[in-house]
C-alpha cells in the first residue's frame, strides 16, 4: 500500500470521509488512491478558497472535520482567507497540502515556497510527513489533535504519497472537551445572584439549541440579559428558542448595547472587541466599570456549564421562548428590509442560512427570529468570500436540509467559482445576491473613519457599477439556474420557486 | 499631512504611480488620500490575486514596480499565489498591506493574523511602519530595495495611515544592477572556444532584444546552441530576432533537449530543474557530465555580460535572424494546433502575449516564431491563475499595445473576476480561452506519475465538464464582449474582429 492509500484509509477510519479538493500534479497519487477508498467522497472545487470555505461549512454543520486537498504553497495561499475564517470560528479541519517529492525539495523548483511558515499562521497542528511509514500515523494524530476545533495541516511530499511501505493507522482516542470546574459555575452563580446588571455573552456551544435553552433559563431566573457574539460560527434560531440579540457590529451600537452592564459573563465566547479600530473610539465595547467573568472558553464544554449554572442559579425558572411568527410578505420596492421580510416570510423549516449579507442584512435577524427553527452561519473571521463556499460545505454536510445563502455582491466575487461546485454537486442551495452595485460597507467605512477626501477617485474605488456585474449570467455560465428580482413580489415568487425545486439556484436581488 | 498622504506622495516621487487595489476598512485613509495625489492611478480589482498578478504584469512590461493595496492578512493571502509567481520571475513590486491600528493590534480582533510571517515567505523586504513620521521613509526604502527585482511588503497600521505628522520622503538612489566581472566573461569565452558541445541558457535580461541579439552573435561565432528557460518572465520574440528554443516542460523532452551538452552557460537563468519530481526520473535535465558555468545570475547586468562575451568570443559573427513568416490560416477543426496557427497568422505587431495555455499551447511557440515582433509573458512560478490578471497589468503598462491572453480554461477560473477589471479599465485585451473542458494537464500528469488508479472517481476529479463552463456568459456577465469559436475559421474571424476594436474581448475557443 502506498502512502496516499494509507492516508485516505486512515482518514476515513478516523471519521473524515469528505475531501474538498483542488489537486495538482503533486497530488496525483492521492487522486488515484480515491478509487481504492470509495468511502472517501471527493468534492472538486475550481479554487482552493472554495475548498477551505466548504470544509468550514461542513465542520460547522457536522461538528466533524472534512479534509481539504491543496496544491503546494500557492494552493494553500489561495485557501488562506477561508482558513482564517475557519480558525476564527474554531472549525475542525484537516488540510492535506501536497509538496514536492523529498528528493526534489532541495532543487528549488518553480513551485517551491515556504509552506510550513504559512501553515503555522492558521494551523493549531502542522506536520510534514517524512516517510510512507509515517504518513498514516501522522494523519491519525492530525484528526485527534483537532477534535475540539482547530486546523491540522499535513504536508504530504509527493514521493511519500507514491512510495509503497505504508500501513493504515488506527484512530487515536479524541481528547474529551475540557469540562468547566464546578467552582467556576458557583462563582458565576454568585455574581448573577447579585443585583448588578449582568449580560450572559454567548458563542460556540452556548448558541446551540441546548445552550440557548439553558441560557434562557438562567436569564429567566436571574434577570441577566442574553447576547451572542456578533458573528458566531453557528447559531440555532427560530420559534421555540429564546430571543437572543446579537452584539451589533458598529462600535457605537455595540457600546450602547452593553452600556450599564456591570458583569459580563462569557459562555463559549471571548470578550468582545470592535472589528476595527477607529480614531477616537475605544477598541472594545465593554464598559470600564464592568467585570468580565469566564464561565466557559470556546472549546470547553460550555453547554454542560450552562446547564449546571441553570440548575444552580435558576432551578425553577423557565426560559422565555419565541412564538412562531413571520413578517407579512412585502410588496413593491426591493429594499434590504423588504428582502429580509421575504426571507423571513418564506424561510423553510430546518433551513441553514449562510449569512454574508454585510450591509444588506438590515432587519434580517429581526425578521427571521420567529421563523421555523433554522441554523445561522456567520462570517466568523471577517475575510469576505466565505458565503458561497460555506453554503457548499453545509449542503454536503446536510443533504436533506435547504441551504439559503444571503450574499453581498462584492464579497461574492472572491470565490464566485463556488457556484460551479453548487451545480456539480446538485447541492440544494439558494443563493440570494444582495445586488447594490457597490462595496457599500466600505462607502460607509470611508465616512466612518473620518477620512477627509470623499472625492471622485476615492468613490470610484468603492463602486462596482462600471461595468455592472450580471450575476444571472455568471450563475448560468456555471450551470446554476438563475433569475433576477427587482421587486419584493418578484423576489418572493422566485424564492418560492427555488425552494420548491431541489438543486442550486441563484436570485439576483437588485436592491434599492 | 497624514501618513497615507505622505506614503502615496513618496511612492509617486519614487516612480511608483500605479496601484492595483482591493481595499477594506483598514485602508480607507489610503483610499481617501488618492484624491490628494492625483498622479497615483488606482486600479480596482475584485480580488487581491488580480491585484498582485496585475502588478506582476505591469512590472514585466515597464521594469518598474506598481504598488498593490491589500486588506490585512486574508487579503494578502488571496494575493499570495500571484505574489509567488512574481517572486519567481523577480518582478519588482511594492505591497501595501493594511493592518489594524496599533492600539487595536493587541485586542486580537477577528481579522487579526500573522501578516509578517506570511509576508516573509515571498518578500525580499518587509517592514511594519510604526509611526506616521516613519512611513514615508519606509516607503522610499521599499522602492529602493527592489530596484533590481523582488517584492517589498510594507505593513501599514490604520492609525499610522490616519494620523497627522507625516512628511514626504525623497526617493533613495537605486542600487545599480551588479555588473559581471570581466574575468567571468573571459572564462566563459574560453569554454566556448573549445570544441565541446555547449548551450547558452538564457533568462531574465538575456531574453530581451539586446540580450538575444548578443546571444545570437555568440552562437553564430562559437557554435553554442541557444535555449531559454521554460517559462521566462518576458521574452522578446518574432522576425528579426534569433530563433531560440525553450527548454521543454516534460522531463524526458527536457533531458533530450540537453543530451550531449558538455557545458551549460547560464545567462540570466538558473540551472534548470524539472517542475516536479517523478518516480524514477532525475530531478533535473542537466547531463551528469555537463559542467555548469554562470555568466550572469538573474538580477545582474546580463545584457552587458552577453555583449562583452560577443565581442570577446565572436567579434565578427553576425547572428542568424528569423525571417518574417506566418502560418497559413487553417480551416476546419479547431485543434490546439489550429488555434496556434490562427494566432500565428494574425498576431499583430508589438503584441504582448500572456501565455497560460498550458496543455493547449501545442505548436504555439513554433507557429508564432516568425510573426512580427512581440513580447511573451509566461507563468514563471507555476501557480495557475496568473494569465487574466497579468494581462490587465500589461495593458495598464502599455496602453498603446494589443494584449493577447491565451488562457487555459481550468486556470482561468482562479481569478476570473479579472475580466471585470479588463472591462472597467477598457483595457485592450483579447482573451482566448482554450476550452477543453478539463484539467487536461492533470489528466496527463495522472498517467505521468505512474498512478495505478485511473478509475472513475479519479477521472471525475480532473473533469470540468459537469456542468460545462460557459465562458461567453461569464465574460458578458462582467462586461466583456464575448463570442464562441468552434472552427478555425470562426476563431480567425472573431480574433480579427476583436483586434480591430479597442477594449477587452473574450473568445471561447472550443477545442477538439
From TrEMBL, chains A, B:
Iron-sulfur recorded as keyword: no
Keyword annotations of the record: Thiamine pyrophosphate
Statement: the UniProt record of this protein carries the keyword Hydrolase: no
Annotated ranges, domain Thiamine pyrophosphate enzyme TPP-binding: 372-508
GO molecular function annotations of the record: acetolactate synthase activity; flavin adenine dinucleotide binding; magnesium ion binding; thiamine pyrophosphate binding
Gene3D superfamilies: 3.40.50.970
Source domain of life: Bacteria
InterPro entries xrefs: THDP-binding, Thiamin_PyroP_enz_TPP-bd_dom, TPP_enz, TPP_enzyme_TPP-bd
Domain called Thiamine pyrophosphate enzyme N-terminal TPP-binding: residue spans: 1-106
Stored NCBIfam families: PRK07586.1 (NF005760)
Record-stated family: Belongs to the TPP enzyme family.
The protein, known as: Acetolactate synthase-1/2/3 large subunit
Organism classification: Bacteria, Bacillati, Actinomycetota, Actinomycetes, Geodermatophilales
Amino acid at each position: 500500500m502506498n502512502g496516499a492509500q494509507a492516508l485516505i484509509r486512515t482518514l476515513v477510519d478516523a471519521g473524515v470521509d469528505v475531501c474538498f479538493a483542488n489537486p495538482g500534479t503533486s497530488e496525483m497519487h492521492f487522486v488515484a488512491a480515491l478509487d481504492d477508498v470509495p468511502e472517501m467522497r471527493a468534492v472538486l472545487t475550481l479554487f482552493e478558497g472554495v475548498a477551505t470555505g466548504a470544509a468550514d461549512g461542513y465542520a460547522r454543520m457536522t461538528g466533524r472535520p472534512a479534509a481539504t486537498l491543496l496544491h503546494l504553497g500557492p494552493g494553500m495561499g489561495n485557501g488562506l482567507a477561508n482558513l482564517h475564517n475557519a480558525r476564527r470560528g474554531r472549525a475542525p479541519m484537516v488540510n492535506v497540502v501536497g509538496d514536492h517529492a523529498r528528493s526534489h525539495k532541495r532543487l528549488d523548483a518553480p513551485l517551491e515556497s515556504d509552506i510550513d511558515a504559512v501553515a503555522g499562521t492558521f494551523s493549531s497542528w502542522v506536520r510534514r510527513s517524512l516517510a510512507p511509514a509515517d504518513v498514516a500515523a501522522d494523519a491519525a494524530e492530525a484528526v485527534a489533535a483537532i477534535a475540539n476545533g482547530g486546523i491540522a495541516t499535513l504536508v504530504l511530499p509527493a514521493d511519500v504519497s507514491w512510495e509503497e511501505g505504508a500501513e493504515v493507522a488506527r484512530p487515536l482516542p479524541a481528547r474529551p472537551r475540557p469540562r468547566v470546574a464546578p467552582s467556576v459555575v458557583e462563582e458565576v452563580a454568585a455574581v448573577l445572584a447579585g443585583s448588578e446588571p449582568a449580560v450572559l455573552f454567548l458563542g460556540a456551544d452556548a448558541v446551540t439549541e441546548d445552550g440557548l435553552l439553558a441560557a434562557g433559563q438562567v436569564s429567566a431566573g436571574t434577570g441577566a440579559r442574553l447576547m451572542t457574539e456578533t458573528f458566531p460560527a453557528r447559531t440555532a434560531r427560530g420559534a421555540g428558542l429564546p430571543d437572543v440579540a446579537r452584539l451589533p457590529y458598529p462600535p457605537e451600537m455595540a457600546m450602547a448595547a452593553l452600556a450599564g452592564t456591570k458583569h459580563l459573563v462569557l459562555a463559549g465566547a471571548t470578550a468582545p472587541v470592535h472589528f476595527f479600530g477607529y480614531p477616537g473610539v475605544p477598541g472594545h465595547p465593554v464598559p470600564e466599570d464592568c467585570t468580565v467573568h469566564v464561565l466557559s472558553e470556546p472549546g470547553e464544554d460550555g453547554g454542560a456549564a450552562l446547564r449546571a449554572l441553570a440548575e444552580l442559579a435558576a432551578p425553577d425558572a423557565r426560559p422565555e421562548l419565541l412564538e412562531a411568527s413571520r413578517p407579512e410578505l412585502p410588496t413593491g420596492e426591493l429594499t434590504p428590509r423588504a428582502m429580509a421580510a421575504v426571507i423571513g416570510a418564506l424561510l423553510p423549516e430546518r433551513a441553514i442560512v449562510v449569512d454574508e449579507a454585510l450591509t444588506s442584512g438590515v432587519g434580517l435577524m429581526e425578521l427571521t427570529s420567529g421563523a421555523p427553527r433554522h441554523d445561522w452561519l456567520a462570517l466568523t473571521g471577517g475575510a469576505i468570500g466565505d458565503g458561497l463556499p460555506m453554503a457548499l460545505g453545509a449542503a454536503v454536510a446536510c443533504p436533506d436540509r435547504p441551504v439559503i445563502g444571503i450574499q453581498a455582491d462584492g464579497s461574492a466575487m472572491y470565490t464566485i467559482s463556488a457556484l460551479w461546485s453548487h451545480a456539480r454537486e446538485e447541492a440544494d442551495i439558494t443563493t440570494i445576491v444582495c445586488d447594490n452595485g457597490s462595496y457599500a460597507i466600505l462607502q460607509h467605512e470611508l465616512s466612518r473613519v473620518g477620512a477627509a477626501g470623499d472625492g471622485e477617485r476615492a468613490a470610484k474605488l468603492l463602486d462596482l457599477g462600471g461595468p455592472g456585474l450580471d450575476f444571472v449570467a455568471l450563475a448560468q455560465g456555471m450551470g446554476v439556474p438563475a433569475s433576477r428580482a427587482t421587486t419584493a413580489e418578484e423576489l418572493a415568487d422566485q424564492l418560492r420557486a427555488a425552494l420548491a425545486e431541489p438543486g442550486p439556484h441563484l436570485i439576483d436581488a437588485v436592491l434599492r
